[in-house]
Amino acid sequence: MPDTPAEADTAIDMESWVCPAPLRDSPNIVMGHGGGGAMSAELIEHLFLPAFGRAAEAGMGDSAVLDVGNVRLAFSTDSFVVKPLSFPGGTIGDLAVNGTVNDLAMAGARPLVMSTAFILEEGTSLDDLARVAQAVGTAAMAAGVKLVTGDTKVVDAGHGDGVYINTAGIGLIDERADIRPQRATEGDVVIVSGDIGVHGVAVMSCREGLEFGTTVASDTAPLHGLVAAMIDTGADIHALRDPTRGGVAATLNEIAKTADVGISLDERTFPIPAEVRDACGLLGLDPLYVANEGKLLAFVAPTEADRVLTAMRAHPLGAHATVIGRCVAEHPKMVSAKTALGGTRVVDLPIGEQLPRIC
Amino acid sequence: MPDTPAEADTAIDMESWVCPAPLRDSPNIVMGHGGGGAMSAELIEHLFLPAFGRAAEAGMGDSAVLDVGNVRLAFSTDSFVVKPLSFPGGTIGDLAVNGTVNDLAMAGARPLVMSTAFILEEGTSLDDLARVAQAVGTAAMAAGVKLVTGDTKVVDAGHGDGVYINTAGIGLIDERADIRPQRATEGDVVIVSGDIGVHGVAVMSCREGLEFGTTVASDTAPLHGLVAAMIDTGADIHALRDPTRGGVAATLNEIAKTADVGISLDERTFPIPAEVRDACGLLGLDPLYVANEGKLLAFVAPTEADRVLTAMRAHPLGAHATVIGRCVAEHPKMVSAKTALGGTRVVDLPIGEQLPRIC
Q1: A19 touches chain B (CB under 8 A)
Q2: Domain named PurM-like N-terminal: which ranges (chains A, B) (predicted)?
Q3: Going by fewer Cβ within 10 Å, which terminus of chain A is more open, N or C?
Q4: How far apart are CA A267 and CA A252, in angstroms?
Q5: Close Cβ partners of A69 (under 8 Å, ≥ 6 residues apart)
Q6: Nearest CB to B69: which of A4, A69, A124?
Q7: What three-state secondary structure class fits A265?
Q8: What tens digit of pLDDT does each residue of A120-159 get?
Q9: Does B69 share its domain with B169?
């Protein structure tokens, strides 16, 4: 194995690199590249993966699986740049812990350890930072994850937004679990663990210039306990994913594409609280595209759906779990929804993002 | 194990939290809190650790050690906010990979996998981003580490500085190694692997408003191969650390404090290139406090020093390895240096940082 840069292969020839077609609309980064939709996917596919070359493994997914010694580990990272730092129901600190815990949980892993890396803006008050750091500590204790290593950098005033946090986590994958988006298959029932659209609406409700009255609080929560309860039923969970940026719509589109199945939803079954529906009406948003931070989507065989649903509903974070659709042979790689009026609409992958800086 | 926030213990009572004395000089974050010196240490000790409470394990060091199944893993993270993004000898992409590889190597680990998380500023050119991403890929291939998971966020134009990168890595610790700062002990020889002060001078030489002519290029490099060669000698390496932010002075002060030993250096043995000495003279800096990104400090028993030095000098990244001091019983927790004129001076832990945004 070479260990000096001089021995490295060149990933792509940068002299002849031309920004590829799907990225060409703008020669620059735009907010949508961070939205978790089609533009994010294009940035990964057409810029990061070619540039990383043979150093990149697999699809650079939400969570990587690592076989080492006699254990199977999940490994995941996320940065958090939510604005504002505090919002009804949580802070950037809760999100940073729960976001990574959930990415690990979606591979069937129990979180073990986490790193926390802060990028602080010069001039940020120590009181504000202490409040965020305490939210990190409280959320980590709640999730049973140890904070074992970290880093702090400071950038000049005016650059940054107070606090950016990156977390990376390692989890131990349950031996009984083989949970991957590729395993979603025709006939599978699609379950959502509870109300959708809540986190995005909570953050927007207190954003500068947009304040509106709502009682909606972020759903930020660690989901590994709920996942463990689902695995404990003995059911074979095919796929799990938490619908964060880009919401349920983006997540289901990704799974449909990865697993090469169609997904057919029924709008009448979507658990959307009235406050979320009202706020989305006000802002011109579709709740299906709004971020969640404490919900999961599960794919299981129809014969096992009842027992999984029962276990989910017995857990505080899955009390409102419900079936919202099925995997179908028709329209592979696409998501459709039966409307309340009896029609059918395509549920597209969002291009950029409806709500920037939501996590 | 509780898994809902409601069940969590409270780490500290924020209502009654008062910014503690060592942080009280400024109620806000200043650049020095990111410098890797005394202010960084105070921020960790008096703000992060109390706020994290029982979720924090050990000292939140550069690299954590994790026993899982039948393997011992190292786990580390770093964010990179260097300004400018490219400098003689490297880019933020090289630093981001090599920095985390080196943190793992300092625990005697071979890097296995790495996460890459980008925080991009709206308006950054895709060409610039592609160049940085290619540097990440090339450095990862050179270090033999796989990029297995990632994240991309975008922040508004004017916030951020083009590209911030966080990497986290997992490495497999060599079974023969027990390398910890605590093991540095009286009598140990202190070895540096090569020329010091190079990276900091290279970055400063091209910083806006400070351009000066120099041929110094950053020493950014992955050090795990050099460490493997040292372990392969069969010598018992007591402690290793890469002297990045805060330079050799900050790193040795940390080890002296952690291991409760004194460290006595001899200035005449410091390998400082003439160009670094000249540039530091111009900028009013002490090379001992300037960051390195491809050097390590090793602590070994005097009986094993020769064989370790021979192995280091046979490796391209250790060709100029040399002994610069010893651990002594006198002045525990302190670092001293014999000067060229025969006197002795205290080598203090820097307070903030001489050179901000250097990595």
Answers
A1: yes
A2: 61-173
A3: N
A4: 14
A5: B68, B69, B70, B71
A6: A69
A7: strand
A8: 999 999 999 999 999 999 999 999 999 999 999 999 999 8
A9: yes
